[in-house]
Specification:
Blueprint lengths: L1 E13 L2 E3 L9 E11 L2 E7 L5 E7 L3 E14 L5 H6 L11 H6 L1 H4 L7 H11 L7 H15 L1 E2 L10 H7 L1 E2 L1 H14 L3 E9 L2 H4 L13 E8 L3 E6 L4 E2 L4 E7 L8 E2 L2 E2 L5 E8 L7
Parallel strand pairs: 7-8
Antiparallel strand pairs: 1-6, 1-15, 1-16, 2-5, 2-14, 3-6, 4-5, 9-10, 9-13, 10-11, 11-12
């Protein structure tokens, strides 16, 4: 369940809102049921964006001093046991080599999101991983482990994402900051990478024997890398996990600013936003 609530000091008129809260079905994830509740009432139009993500466009009829958006999903997520070792069987050596067609198709994902940070990112990678492994998956695994072990997680309610240079300088960040650093570092190493937003299943919340995760209870962010022989592979440096069934992918984009779960406007002279609260709950349902 993903619930977002906005409260205002007086009734306001809502402009169009854009939601990215519904995953796409695939061989690794199946949507079994879904529902979307919106108050005040709104017309909902579903569309695909330029990346093929499902987007809900809301057009409101009434003014209100509160906006509630609640999405519930029932899905089946598939994952691999020991994904690094299993995926590495199908991948090759580093440096990575893309075919001519892949280079054209992946072009936007090979360009750094923050070009002014390229020098800082390259210097950090050289310091964190002085000897790059020979295999593509091993390089990416080492990069994820370096971010996980060298940076402190610090939850931040403010909007926006730190640049990679800021994260390196501060030595801390949120999941979205780590995802961007991983993405631009992977691109600096010659990989095509993209930003992923979604949800995290924190196993320890369901069972004391589960693995404790960081980033549950809110929307989560990680990165995808296109690895020849394996395709798009998910890396979550916040939790140092790869292609995990605990990652519930909602949207993949070229840059973080394109992956906002909720985006919209309101209008009323003098009106103020009093509060915004977000609740995300991901639980395991026995088959």
């Amino acid at each position: 369940m993903h619930r977002t609530r906005y409260s205002y000091d007086r009734p306001v008129t809502f402009g169009e809102h854009r939601l990215m809260i519904r995953p796409r079905d695939g061989h690794d994830m199946r949507i079994l049921d879904s529902s979307l509740t919106v108050a005040p009432r709104a017309d909902v139009h579903w569309a695909f964006d330029t990346f093929g993500n499902s987007v809900a466009l809301l057009s409101f009829h009434d003014s209100a001093n509160e906006l509630l958006i609640e999405s519930e999903l029932l899905l089946r997520r598939y994952g691999l046991d020991e994904p690094l070792a299993r995926i590495a069987r199908f991948t090759g050596a580093y440096p990575v080599e893309y075919s001519p067609d892949e280079q054209i198709d992946l072009g936007p994902y090979l360009t750094p999101d923050q070009p002014l940070d390229q020098q800082a990112v390259a210097a950090w990678v050289a310091q964190a991983i002085p000897q790059l492994p020979n295999g593509t998956m091993q390089v990416l695994g080492a990069l994820s482990s370096a971010i996980h072990s060298r940076f402190a997680y610090a939850r931040r309610e403010a909007e926006g994402v730190q640049t990679p240079a800021q994260t390196i300088r501060q030595g801390s960040g949120t999941c979205r900051d780590f995802a961007l650093l991983f993405m631009d570092a992977a691109r600096a190493l010659g990989f095509a990478a993209r930003f992923v937003t979604g949800y995290l299943h924190d196993e320890i919340a369901d069972s004391a024997s589960g693995e404790d995760m960081t980033g549950g209870g809110a929307t989560h962010a990680w990165a995808d890398v296109f690895v020849p022989g394996a395709g798009w592979v998910e890396f979550d440096p916040t939790n140092r996990i790869i292609a995990s069934r605990n990652l519930i992918r909602v949207a993949t984009t070229r840059r973080p600013s394109q992956a906002l779960p909720v985006r919209g406007t309101f209008a009323h002279e003098g009106a103020k936003l009093l509060a915004m609260d977000v609740l995300v709950s991901v639980t395991n349902t026995p088959a």
